[in-house]
Amino acid sequence: MHLRAWRLIFAFVLSGATVYKLETRAVSVWYGSYQALKGVSLALERNQVLALIGPSGCGKSTFLRLFNRMNDFIEGFRLEGEVLIDGENIYAPQVDPVHLRRRVGMVFQKPTPFPFSIYENVAYGLRLQNRLPESQIRERVEHALRQAALWEEVRDNLKKSALMLSGGQQQRLCIARALAVRPSLLLMDEPTSALDPISTAKIEELIHELRQHYTIVIVTHNMQQAARVSDMTAFFYMGQLVEYGRTKDFFTNPQHPETIRYITGRFG
Amino acid sequence: MKKKMFAVAGWSTFLVLIGLTVFLFREGLPALYKFPQPELVFAVHPANPVVRLSAEAVRALAEGKADWAAFGGPARPARLVHLANLERYLPAYASAAEIQRILADLAADTAILLALPAPLLPEAVKPISVTWQGWRELFGSLYWSPTYEPLPRVGVWPLLVGSVWVTFIGLMLVVPLGLAMAIYVAEFLPRTLYYPIKVLWEVLAGLPSVVVGFWGLVVVVPAVKSVLHLSAGETAFTAGLLLGWITLPLMASLVEEALQAVPRLLVESSYGLGATRWQTILRLKLPYILPSIATAALLSAGRILGETMVVLMVSGNAPLLATTPFQPVRTLPATLAAELGEAPIGSYHYHVLFFLGALLFLLTLALNLAAYAIQSRYLRAQTLG
Amino acid sequence: MGKWMSFFLFLLFGCTDRAVLRIKGSDTVLPLSQIFAEHFMQRRGEVLVSVTGGGSGVGLAALLNGDTEIAMASRPLKVSERLRFAARGITVIEDTVAWDVLAICVHPANPISRLTWEDLERIYTGQVRNWRELGGPDLPIHPYSRESSSGTFEFFRERVLRGKDFAAHVRFLPATGTIVQAIAQNVSAIGYIGIAYTNPNLKVLAIATAPGKPYRLPARSRQELADYPIARPLYYYYDQRNREKVKEFLAFVHSEEGRALTAKMGYVP
Ligand SMILES: Nc1ncnc2c1ncn2[C@@H]1O[C@H](COP(=O)(O)OP(=O)(O)OP(=O)(O)O)[C@@H](O)[C@H]1O
Ligand SMILES: [Mg+2]
Fold this sequence. Notes:
The complex is a heterotrimer.
Chain A: H1 2-15, E1 22-31, E2 34-44, E3 49-53, H2 60-64, E4 77-85, E5 88-89, H3 97-103, E6 104-107, H4 118-128, H5 134-147, H6 151-154, H7 167-180, E7 185-189, H8 197-210, E8 215-219, H9 223-229, E9 232-237, E10 240-246, H10 247-252, H11 257-263
Parallel strand pairs in A: 3-8, 3-9, 6-7, 7-8
Antiparallel strand pairs in A: 1-2, 1-4, 4-5, 9-10
Helix pairs in contact in A: 4-5, 4-7, 5-7, 7-8
Chain B: H1 2-28, H2 30-33, E1 40-44, E2 52-54, H3 55-62, E3 79-82, H4 96-106, E4 112-117, E5 126-127, E6 129-131, H5 134-140, E7 144-145, E8 153-154, H6 157-188, H7 191-205, H8 209-227, H9 236-260, H10 264-272, H11 277-288, H12 290-306, H13 309-314, H14 332-339, H15 348-384
Parallel strand pairs in B: 2-6, 3-4
Antiparallel strand pairs in B: 1-4, 1-5, 7-8
Helix pairs in contact in B: 1-15, 6-9, 6-12, 7-9, 8-9, 9-12, 10-11, 12-15, 14-15
Chain C: H1 2-14, E1 19-25, H2 30-43, E2 47-52, H3 56-64, E3 70-73, H4 79-87, E4 92-106, E5 114-116, H5 117-124, E6 142-146, H6 151-160, E7 171-173, H7 176-185, E8 189-194, E9 203-204, E10 206-208, E11 231-239, H8 243-253, H9 256-264
Parallel strand pairs in C: 1-2, 1-3, 5-10, 6-7, 6-8
Antiparallel strand pairs in C: 3-11, 4-8, 4-9, 4-11
Bound molecules: adenosine-5'-triphosphate and magnesium ion (MG).
C-alpha cells in the first residue's frame, strides 16, 4: 500500500508532466518604478543545471534571487506572476521566507566567509534550526565539506579562521555552508567571477558532482562555463527572457538575433 | 601648496601635543622627589631627643594621634606651631620683634614642634629632618588632603578608585544601552526617522556638561537617593549613571555605524541560510562587529574617565576609598578641576595635581591604544580574506 | 609724532580729570566692593573707583608694590606677608568692612536644632557619624563642604575645626548653591553656607561656642558676633601713607548707607 503510493508519486514526478522543480509564470519585477523583469516564464526539471546569461543589468540576479525571496529585503520591490518550487507558490501569503531559505542554498559572486572558524562557518546554518546534538552537527559539517571537495584540505584546521583560506577555498567553504542545511536547490550568482582559473575549474567540477543530488541555478558571464556546466541555458536581455533551451542546442543553434550577437561576443 | 598647508597643520598639532605631554610630565614628576614644604624648617625643643621624623609621624603628632613618646621624645602630646596656625598665638598687630618674642616663648615648651620659615625660627630650637618619600606618599597612603598643614596627604588611591568606579558604572550602562540603541536604529527604525534621530544624538552629545551636571544634581541625585534608599544621592553610581548617559550617543553611533558597515553579502548569506532577522543580528552581526564594540566601549571609557564638570557636581567629591559604588567618590579629573586653580604654581600641590594629570593621561592613552590595537588587528584579519 | 601721542593720551585720560582709587584682591569681597564703588561714584562723580579681583594674595602683592590703594582680602594677613610689608617699611592698616557669617544648616525634617562647636568639629572630623549620638534620629550624618579652593573651606578648617583635617567621607561640592540643593534634598545632611544663601528649605542651627554657653543663631549684627564667632571677616588693607586718599571711601563704606548695602548683600556690616 505504502510502497504503491510512493511508486505512483515517483512515476508522476519522473514523467515530468506537470511538476517541475522550478517554475515561473509571467513574472514581472519592479524596483520602485523601474521594471527589472518583464513577464518571464520558465520551467526547470529536477537535478538539472540552469545557466542564466545576459549582459550586465539585464535582470539575472533579480531572477535568481526570486527563488529564495532575497529580493524581499529591497525597498520598493514588487512582484507580479507566480514563482513555484516543487509546484508550490513561494510568494503565497502562508509561506514563511525563513523556512523557504532553509530549502534553498545560495552562493554569491564573492566568497562570503563569516569571521569565525571553518567549522563554525559550516555549522552556522545548522545551529539556526532546532537544536541538533553536536555529534550530528560534526557529521553534517564533515559531509558538507566532503561534498564541497574541501574536506581533505581543511580537516586538520577546522578551528582556524575561515578568513585564512584562499579565495577558491573560501568559495568552496561557502558552498559547503549552503549544502550543510541540506537544500534541494542551489543558487549561484557568478560563483567563480572572483577566482583564478584553477579554483574555477574546481568549482565547475563540483557543480558536475552536485547535479546528481541538487537542482542548480547559476548566473555566469562566462559563455564557456555555461556551456560546460549547464543542462539548460536562459538568455536575458533588458528584463526579458529572450531565449531558453537545452544548452547543447542553445550554443550550436541560437534562434534570436540578440542571442547570436551575445554569444558571439558582438554585443553592445 | 595645499599639501604643504596640511603638513604644517599636522606637524604643528603634533608638536603642540608633544609639548603638552612634556609639560605635563615635567610638572608632574617633581611630585615624586620634591619636599612639599621646602621653605619650612621643622624644629623641636633642644631637650627633645628626636632628630628625625617621617611625614606620617609629623601628621600623627599634629593631629594628636600620637605623642612624642612614640618617637622617642617626652611622654607628652606635641604642640604644633606652623604658618597656618601661627595667627592663633599672635595678637592682631604684632610687629616683627613681637612675633620673634612670642615664638621664643612658645619654643620653651619641651613638647613643641615648629614648622616655620628659617627667618622666623627662634634661636634656641633644634632643627630636625623630616623625611618625605614621594612614591610612598602617593601610592602608599589612602588619604587625600593636599592642603593639610604642615604636611599634605597625597594618596592617589581614593581618586584612582573613584575614577574606576565611575567609569565602571558608566560602562555598565553605556555598553548594553548603547548596543540596544544602535541595534534599534540600524535595524528597526523607519528610514524616515533615521536622520532626525542621528541629529538628536549629536545634540545630546553636545549638551554642555554643566547643564547635565546641574540637572543631575537637581533631578538624578534625589532620584537615586529615594529609589535606592540611600542616605545621600551623591555617589559614584550617580556620576556613572549620568556619564553613561552622556556617552550613550558616542557609543550608540559608533556601534550603529559598525552595524551598517557589515558587508551586505555576509548579511544576505546569513539570511540565505535561513536565519531570521534576530538570528542574523545576534549570531552574525554582533560577533562580526565585536572589535568595533570593544573599541567603542574603550573610547566611551576614555570619555567617561576624563569627564570633569558632571562628576564634580554629582559624585560628592569625598576622597573616600569607596568599596561600593553607592559611596561618594572623588575622581582624578574632578580633583584637577577643583584644585588646580588654587594651587600656587610650582608648589607641591601643583606638582601633585600635574602628577594626577599625567596618571590620567597614561590611563586614557592606554585605553586609546587598546582601542587602536583591537581595531588594527581586526582590520588586518579582514583584509587577509 | 609727539603731538599725536599727547593727543592720544589726552583722549585716554585727559578728558576725565578725576582722582583714581584702585581696589584689588579677593573675589569674595569683589561684589561688595563693586556695589560700594557704584554708589560712591554716584555721589562723588570726581573720583573714579576701579575694582578688580584676582584673589586675596594678588591684592596684597599689588599693595606691596604700590599698584593698588586698597587690597581686598577674605582672610587676615599671613605672617609672611606681614614680615614682607615690614621689610619694605610699609605700615598696613586693616579695616574690617564686613563679616561673612556662616550658617550651619540641616534639612528641616531633622529634629536637631542646635549643636555645640565641639559637636560640629566632631561631625566634620568624623568622630561622630550618626545623628543618634547627638540626640537625633538614627541616621548617618552626611557632612557637606565647599571645595578646598574656596576661602570658606580654609576658614572652616582653620577656625572651626581648629586645624584638624576633614574626614574622608565629607562630600565636597563646587558651589554654595549646590550645597543648598544637597541639604534641601537630604535629611541626614549638614553643611555650612553664607547666611545670604539660607532659605526656608533649610534649617539653620543654633550654635553654642562651648558646653554651657547659650545656643545662638547666626549673628545679624557685629555685637552678636561675640556669641556666634563662626564668621569670616572681610578686610580692606591699605598703606598708612594713603590714609587721606582712601578716607572718604572708607567713611562711605562704614556710613549708614554703606552698612545698608553690606546688609543687603548678605553680610554683617
Ligand atoms: N536594489 C535595487 N534597487 C533598484 N534597482 C535595482 C536594484 N537591484 C538591481 N536593480 C536594477 O535592476 C536591474 C537588474 O539588476 P540585476 O542585479 O538583476 O542585474 P544582473 O543581470 O544581475 O547584472 P550583473 O550582470 O551586472 O550582475 C538593473 O538595471 C539594476 O539597476
Ligand atoms: Mg548580478
